[in-house]
Every structure is written in structure tokens, then in C-alpha cells.
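User: Second chain of the day. Same drill as before.
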Amino acid sequence: MDNTERLEKYEYDDYTVVTNFETYEQAEEYAREHNSELIEVGFTDGSDNPMPDTTGNLIAERRSFKVGLDKEYQVYYSQDEGFQAMAEQVLEELKKKEDDDTPEDWLADQNIAPRDRIIIVKNGEVNTVTTRERIKFLMRGSLYELAVKVPKTD
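Assistant: Same format as last time:
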């Protein structure tokens, strides 16, 4: 599997939880390769450690992650139809606002997987453009992730 360097591992007594998969298929492949199981976890209440949580309904929807925010926010994921056009519009507005031809282009950031990007809209206006990892800290939101539970062997 490629992109294993981006994976996050959390150690527990009898198992390790692996998160931060770019796609559902990558998580499935990792689980197969490590004779492990897919589970859903949540980073909620500002926690840095994932806990079992099926709120995101990720396995049924075949998604690698989902964001939980207050009801006044709408979340658009990079795999959603129209996301790219919306992101380009946001960047153009930022350029005009900052009177800058080349603002930091978060879309080109090589450290961010393309599928990790999200746009948050509040009251019909873009509130922020961010990533799944930043949502936990910037907006005190919940992050639900597909994970692989790898049993520890003696």
C-alpha cells in the first residue's frame, strides 16, 4: 500500500488503531494485509485519542472520514460533486480580498491528501476551507474516521 507514512497509529493494551486513510479502499487493503478489521472511531470532545464511534456511518457509506459540526454549518467534501469549482471560486475571492496574485494555495499543499480537503459553509457563505485534521482543533468539531483495528501479537 502506498502513502503508509501518512497513517496515524494509536496504541492500546491489546490492539493498535490505525487511522488517516485517504480512501475507503486503502483502509480495506490495509485491513486485509494485516489480518485485521475495519472499525469506526471518533475524535470527539477535543480528544486526541480515537474511541469506537459509529456516528459517522462510514462503513455503510464507504467513506474514510466525516466531520461533525453544529447544525448551522454545511460541510462539503473533496469527493462531492462541485467541490473543485467551489474551491477555485474561494481561492479567487481570497486573491481579490488579499490583493495578491499568489496567496498560499492550500489546494497545492503536498502534505495534504486531495481527499482530506473540506469546505465549511455557514449561512450560505464560506466560513473556512480546511482539512479533516484541522477541524478538530480549529472548530472544536468531531471527526469520525474509518480505522483498522490491529490485534497485538505476543
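The CA atoms of residues 130 and 138 lie 9 Å apart.

User: Great, on to the next one.
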